[in-house]
Amino acid sequence: MTATQEAPAGQEIGRDRRRKEDQRLITGRTRWTDNFTLPGMLHMAMVRSPFAHANITAIDKSVAEQAPNVVAVLTGADLGESQGTLINAWPITPDQVTPAHPPMPADRVTFAGEIVAVIVARTPAEARDAAELVDVDYDELPAVIDLKEAAAADADNGVLAHPDLGTNKSALWVFDSGEAGTGGDVEQAIEKARTDGIVIEREFRQQRLIPAFMEPRSVVVDPTAEQLTMWSATQIPHILRFALAATTGIPESKIRIIAPDVGGGFGGKLQTTPEEWLAVAIARRLGRPVKYTETRSESLMAAHHGRDQWQKLTLAAEKDGTVTGLKVDLLADLGSYISLVGGGVPVLGAFMFNAIYKFPAYRFSCQTVLTNKTWTDAYRGAGRPEATFGIERMMTELAAELGVDPLEVREKNWIKNDEFPFSTVAGLEYDSGNYEAATEKATQMFGYDELRAEQQQRRDSGDRVQLGLGVSTFTEMCGLAPSRVLGSLDYGAGGWEYAGVRMLATGKVEVVTGASAHGQGHETAFSQIIADRLGVAFEDIEVLHGDTQVAHKGLDTYGSRSLAVGGEALVRAADKVIEKARPIAAHLLEASADDLEFSGGRFSVRGTDQGLAIGEIASAVFAAHNLPDGVEPMLDSDATYDPENFSFPHGTHLCAMEVDTETGAVKMRKYVCVDDIGNIINPLIVSGQVHGGLVQGIAQALWEEAVYDEAGTLVSGSFVDYLLPTSADTISFETGHTTSPAKIHSLGAKGVGEAGTIASTPAVVNAVIDAIRHLGVADVQMPCTPERVWRAIHDAGAQGDDPTTGAAAPHFDEATGGAL
Ligand code: MCN
To answer: Over the Cα atoms of the chain, what is R_g?
Structure first.
């Protein structure tokens, strides 16, 4: 079920518009990268290491080179420096330990799936067949797979992912509210709570996830013209162009990146990849276009993964449930290399552990760690789901400790509506929000009291299937910008966005955005914004994106930024067009510009019936027969927008789960969410974003996990083992909205692309635990598989724990000496 909003008559913003993109995307008749074919194009296939850590001692290419239609077999030694290097754009500390990242190493592999040779052949099938014929000799080295073991190892003790670096520890990033002056000393708060309050300590695992987008990564490179053109299934054509230029020496002006229709990314295509770099090096070397499209197995194994953290949390509170401090110690697994923004992902969480609450003291530390696994990076929510999970589990545990409803401790601690704008203990300023309203609406839609009564009934009757209710009240920082803040975090780029608006001679409008959609429906929502602003028909607007030659500037799509940043840039470009048209309209109407008013797409002379539509002015400008002196025959404009703050959507998510206490099987009964994303441009798109986001977060709670064996082989390397849900696995969600407009820009809109994922995971896990807490269970590690749930029930029962004290909760692992 979907809650939509009615737009005022004649207004596009707020209207349920089906996506302009749907026809071509749903039928698949579109420009996927793999559909491009160029004259003389060759195809690449990769030979990948089966070992997690090994020296490459010899590569025999001779048989593969003789295979039918093989043009070249190239190794790291063959390509040498010409392959360039991959960059980490976010070194989180000045002393971060960063391994060099060649696209194809010549001497040593550091994760299973790393490329050791490339076959270039006339067809993809011939390239793949020949890849089987390359004989690589490896000298296997010890590999470190487990995150805690990697963190505990040093040069004398344990296994190093990169022995030459002398450590697995990459960087330690710390925020302390006492030192930052945003709050008090957390250690004092904890000490005090130990004597006269409550201290909750927990350790949570964020399992490794795989973005698993629908379209595997694909790249085509054409080096045959003066300018090198790359088509890539990427989220970030502009960042890619910059990184390629910076690391290969090719001038930026000679690189054109095209991201045609891209079949999903979920953060997984916010990356610069070895495959792209190798395609460039090989195309240039051979002087011919090349294409590479990964198989699904390659995608699961070698495209970057997400999450993979251990979180150690200590929450201090007074006996009435008022939280006095929160301490967070993270271990974050980077995998074997530090990818484009990989190190920074857990750091984003630093600003969100305090969530919607007024904690007076806060400390966050994050140790990033190298292991011999696939590198990690952004995955829908990037840092914020991890933080939301941590704090929403802790608030639920606090409520359990106090024996009160989980909504009660949240309400006691959250920022009240009349306290906005609010400066948080993590140093952010929240501009707007109304946690009371969202929670009130959600509890009503959910039927909270009735479900609590049913839960009690089932407990009293000792029903085999128990009911649990999970709460997750969340906020997040999105609309990633502001450049100054990103700069203060040592992020390598800014956060502004670009827009261009051109009135065409026919009165139609061409809109250019630096955002690069890969499923979000920008063409539709951005058309709605421009339709209202310029007063032209929705159908008369075309939105162009994803080509650095068309959108010559931009910072692409991630961090739910495209609307909050790119949308506002559009508004500003459109406003400039209107101002450009004004003197021309005055000239044509023989009126003073001051007497003109612009409304509904028309300049009118105040107090008369005289006027001209902006489309008519565009035609007159094109003809240029009668323009004021000195006015150029152009009715277009550009704008960039760099917001002064993030946008802070929030919401209340409620989940009811049934748990079979004999088998451990869990079943979702009801899911209600009320999100506040400020003003909504297209409610239909927003519902789609929320639904998709929810499924992704629920999947983390219940199904998905990238599992490695001890040798470092990805065991969940296909969709048989990596449990990606389908619509058959989910229920119909009930979604609603409250509206606290963003204060920082004219649209008042906040991002929505990640909200569902961020909020839903703790709602589900809290519900599962709530169903079986009376049996002594205080935690179940994700994903909450039937086996894990069954074991949790069994272990708690076996130990005879007291359900009210949470004594069966997992406690800190002292074996690692406090590091975690
Ligand atoms: N929107 C709206 N009103 C609002 C907020 C958003 O109408 N108040 C609309 C926007 O116009 C846009 C869509 O909702 O069409 C999402 O907008 P926004 O929140 O700005 O997010 P982005 O467009 O920047 O998309 C990025 C975000 C992220 S970070 C991930 S991950 C993600 C997601 O979007 N990956 C996706 N949604 C995805 N959807 C699809 N189909 N595929 C992915 O890979």
So the answer is: 28
DSSP helix/strand/coil, 244:
helix
Q: Classify 143 as helix, strand or coil.
A: coil
Decide if 112 contacts 143 (C-beta within 8 A): no
Report whether residue 682 contacts ligand 1, using a CB cutoff of 6 Å: yes
Residues forming beta bridges with residue 56, ordered by sequence position: 138
| The pLDDT value given to residue 5 | 52
Cα–chain-centroid distance for residue 644? 21
Q: Give Cα separations from 609 to 591, 603, 617, 618 (angstroms).
A: 13, 10, 17, 20
Sorting pLDDT into bands at 50, 70 and 90, what band is 10? Answer: confident
Q: Which residues are 202's β-sheet partners? A: 313
Nearest CA to ligand 1 atom 36: 266
Residue nearest atom 23 in ligand 1 by C-alpha distance: 562
User: What DSSP state is assigned to residue 565?
Assistant: I
Instruction: State the Cα–Cα distance between residues 170 and 183, nearest whole angstrom.
Output: 28
Distance 752 CA to ligand 1 centre (A): 6
Q: Is 274 in the pocket of ligand 1 (CB under 6 A)?
A: no
Backbone angles phi, psi at 143, to 5 degrees: -120, 145
Atom of ligand 1 nearest to the CA of 683: 7
* Global confidence as pTM: 0.95
Q: Is the CB of 265 under 6 A from ligand 1?
A: yes
Whether ligand 1 lies within 6 angstroms of the CB of 756 is answered as no
Percent of the chain with pLDDT over 90: 94
Is the CB of residue 514 below 6 angstroms from any atom belonging to ligand 1?
A: no
Mean pLDDT on 1-29: 82
- The pLDDT tens digits of the residues spanning 88-120 come to 999 999 999 999 999 999 999 999 999 999 999
Alpha carbon dihedral 208, 213, 215, 217, in 10-degree steps, equals -40
The tokens for 640 are: 């960039």
pLDDT band at 798 (very low <50, low <70, confident <90, very high): low
Give the pLDDT confidence score for residue 760 in this predicted structure: 98
User: Quick one: tokens of 374?
Assistant: 């696939």
- Asked if residue 406 lies in contact with residue 766, where contact means CB atoms within 8 angstroms, the answer is yes
How many CB atoms neighbour CB 147 within 10 A?
23
| Structure-block tokens of residue 68 | 């039918």
Ligand 1 centroid from CA 753, angstroms: 4
Q: Please tell me the distance between residue 566's alpha carbon and the centre of ligand 1 in angstroms.
A: 12
Strands 650-660 and 666-676: antiparallel
Query: Facing residues of 292 across strands?
Result: 219
- Section 333-359 average pLDDT: 96
Instruction: Tell me the DSSP string of 720-779.
Output: TTS----GGGS---EEEE-----SSSTT-B---TTHHHHHHHHHHHHHHHHHHGGGT---
Strand partners, 54: 109, 140
Does ligand 1 lie within 6 Å of residue 562's CB atom? Answer: yes
Q: Whose CA is nearest to atom 37 of ligand 1?
A: 753
User: For residue 665, how many C-alpha atoms fall within 13 Å in the half-sphere facing its CB?
Assistant: 7
Please state the rounded mean pLDDT for residues 197-217.
Answer: 97
Contact 704/308 with Cβ under 8 angstroms? no
By three-state DSSP, how is residue 36 classified? coil
Find the 685 Cα to ligand 1 centroid distance in Å.
8
Closest among 659, 678, 675 to 667, alpha carbons compared: 659
Q: Which of 168, 170, 51, 179 is nearest to 116 (CA)?
A: 51
The mean pLDDT of the chain is 95
Beta strand segments in 375-464, E: 422-423, 429-430
Verify whether ligand 1 is closer than 6 Å to residue 605 (CB atom): no
Number of neighbours of residue 615 by Cβ within 10 angstroms: 23
Mean pLDDT confidence for 131-149:
98
Distance CA 649, CA 622 (A): 43
251 upstream amide cis, omega within 30 of 0: no
Contacts of 89 (CB under 8 A, 6+ apart): 239, 243, 340, 341, 491, 492, 493
